[in-house]
Amino acid sequence: MTATELTQLLADGLILGSMYGLIAVGYTMVYGILQIINFAHGEIYMLGGFGALFVYAWVPGLRAIPLWAALPVLLVVAVAVSVAAATGAERFAYRPLRGAPRLAPLISAIGLSLFLQQVVFNFFTLPGSSMGVTAPVPFPQFETAPLDLAGVQVSVAGLLTLALAAFGMVALTWFVRRTRTGRAMQATAQDPATARLMGIDTDRIIVIAFAIGAALAAVACVTQGLRLGTVSYNMGFITGLKGFTAAVLGGIGNIQGAMAGGVVLGLAESLASGALPHIDALAMFSGSVWKDVWAFVILIVVLLIRPQGLFGERVADRA
Amino acid sequence: MSALLEVDDLRVAYGKVEAVKGISFTVEEGEAVTLIGTNGAGKTTTLHTLSGLLRPAGGSVRFRGEDLAGVPAHRVVALGLAHCPEGRHIFPSLTVEENLFLGAYLRKDAPGIADDLERAYTLFERLRERRAQAAGTLSGGEQQMLAMGRALMCRPALLMLDEPSMGLSPIMMRKIMDTVAELRRTGTTILLVEQNARAALALADRAYVMETGRIVLEGTGTELARAESVRKAYLGED
Q: Which residue numbers delimit the ABC transporter domain (chain B) (predicted)?
C-alpha cells in the first residue's frame, strides 16, 4: 500500500469522523447537564436530512439554482426541523420525567426514536406506493468532480463536511467559554442547584443544550446526504450509535472530546476497511463489512484502559 | 413597617417526614440574625426553602413584602435574596473570576458589577491573587471566601450564609467570621446558620435556636449566649 493510498484513507476517515463528532456533541452536551443519554438523537439527526430534502423537493426555485446556492436554505431548514424536534422531545418526553428513575427517560427516548422513524417512514411515500419508503431516498448532490490533492481525492461534500465541522466546533467553544449563556451552561452542568441560586433559569439552559446538539446533528445529516447521495428513515440508528460511541470514546460530558472521539472512530473505520486488507494476518477481518466491528473493538479497548474516555477527566471534577 | 423577611408557620417536608414543623421568625433590615442548632435541626432545610430550592408544605414567607410562594429559585435571587450554600458549592472548573461574575448573572449594569468585583477582591485579597485559577484548585477556606464573594455579587438585600465556618482551620474560621462581622457593620443584612454557636451568637443581633424542626428559644445574641440551656447544649459548658 502506498503513502498516497494511506493518506486517502486518513482523509476519508477524517471526513467521516468529523461528521460523527458533530453528532457526538449533542449526546455529550445533554449528558453533561442532565446525565441522561438522549437515544432519540439519531432520529433528530435523521430529521434534519429529511427537512432539507423536503424543501428541496417542494420549493421548485431551489432546484433551478445551483446546489451551492441552495445549500444555505437546506442547512437552515434542516437545523430548524431538528431543533424543533429536539426541543419538543425535551419538553414532552424528558422534562416530565425529570426526577424519575434513570430508566424512565431511557425508555421514553427509545419510544420517541421509534415514533420519529415511523413518522418519517409513513410521510415520505414514493409515487405509486401506498407504503412508506424502505429504500433510501435520493438526496441532491454536487456534480463537481472530486478535488485531486496530490493524488488524494476529496469530494466537495467531504471538504464541506470538514469546513462545517471545524466552524461548528470553533463557534461552540467560543459560545461555551466566552458568552454569559455559555458560562451559565457550564455552571448548570457542574452544579444545577447552585446555578439556580445564581439566578440561572436551568430549564432554559437545558433547552439550549438540546437545541445546539440538534443543530449540529442536522448539519451532519445534510453533509452525509450530500456525500452519499441518499437519506433513509432509519439512517439515524447506526449513525446515532456511532455518534454516541464517539461521545463515550472522547469522555462523555466533554465537548472537544466528543469531536476528537468522532475523528478517532472515523479513522478507525476507514483504516479497517482500507488498510487491514494489506496486513495478511488480519486480511480476513477487513473490508467495509468489518468496519463496525473494528469501531466497537476500539471503543471496548479504550474503555478498558481509560473508563472515563480519552479526554474524560473533565467529568471527574464535577463536585 | 414590616420586616425585610417574615417567615410565618413555615413547614417543609421530605416526602412524609416533616423536617421543619411550623417555624416563625423575622429579619429586620440591617440586622444580623442567626439560626443555631444541632445537625438535623432543620436549619439548612429552612434556607433552601427561603431561596426556592425546596417547596414549603405550609406557611408563608414574605420578603420585602412579597409572598415567595411559587417563586422559582432563579427569580428569588432577582428579588435580592442571596444564598451562600453549605459546603461552598463553587463551580470547580470555572475560574475564580468567572465564579464571581456568575454571582452577578442577572445584573446588566457593567460599571456596578466592576465596582462589586473590586469590593469582593478588597474583602478577600486572596481571591484577587487567584482570579484566573480554576476554583476547584482553591483550599477550603479560599473556596468559602469565593462562595461569599459570589453571593455578594448580586448586591443582596439579605445575605443567607449556611455554615460558612464548617470544615475550616481555626485561623480561617476566624477570618471568615471576622468578614461576616465586617459585612454586618457595613450594613449588609445577614441570616447566618452556624453550628459554631459561640461565634454566631457573638456577632448576631438576634438569634433563634432550632431543635428538630422547631424554634425552641429566641433572644438577642448576648441573651442567648448567657442562657443556661444554650450554654450547656451548644457552647459545651457545664
A: 5-237
Residue B151's closest chain A neighbor by CA? A198
A295 domain residue, yes or no: yes
- Rounded Cα distance between A233 and A249, Å, is 26
Structural domains of chain B, with CATH: 5-234 (3.40.50.300)
Q: Is the pLDDT of residue A40 over 90?
A: yes
| Grid coordinates given for B163 | 455554615
Domain that holds residue A115: 3-123+134-144+178-316
Give domain status of residue A173, yes or no.
Answer: no
Q: What is the pLDDT of residue A84?
A: 98
Judged by CB atoms closer than 8 Å, whether chains meet at B52 and A184 is answered as no
Closest CA to A233 of A92, A88, A112, A114: A114
Q: Write down the pLDDT at residue A225.
A: 96
The tally of domains found in chain A comes to 1
Q: Dmax of chain B from CA atoms?
A: 54
3-class DSSP assignment, residue A149: strand
Distance CA B94, CA B227 (A): 45
Task: Report how far residue B32's alpha carbon sits from residue B13's, in angstroms, rounded to the nearest whole number.
Answer: 27
Chain-chain contact of B94 with A317 (C-beta, under 8 angstroms): no
B155 touches chain A (CB under 8 A): no
- The per-residue pLDDT for A318 is 41
CATH number at residue A83: 1.10.3470
DSSP code of residue A132: P
**What number of C-beta contacts closer than 8 Å exist between A and B?**
70
Closest CA relative to residue A234, chosen from A37, A48, A43, A82: A43
Whole-angstrom CA distances from A305 to A133, A299, A301, A308, A309 are 43, 10, 6, 9, 9
pLDDT tens per residue across span A186-223: 999 999 999 999 999 999 999 999 999 999 999 999 99
Look up the pTM and report it.
Answer: 0.92
Choose, out of B55, B90, B91, B106, the residue to mutate when testing the contact with A (most A CBs < 10 Å): B91
- Contacts of residue A140, Cβ cutoff 8 Å, sequence gap at least 6: A53, A56, A63, A67, A70, A74, A225, A226
- Rounded to a whole number of angstroms, the distance from the CA of B75 to the nearest CA of chain A is 6
How many Å lie between the alpha carbon of A192 and the closest alpha carbon of chain B? 10
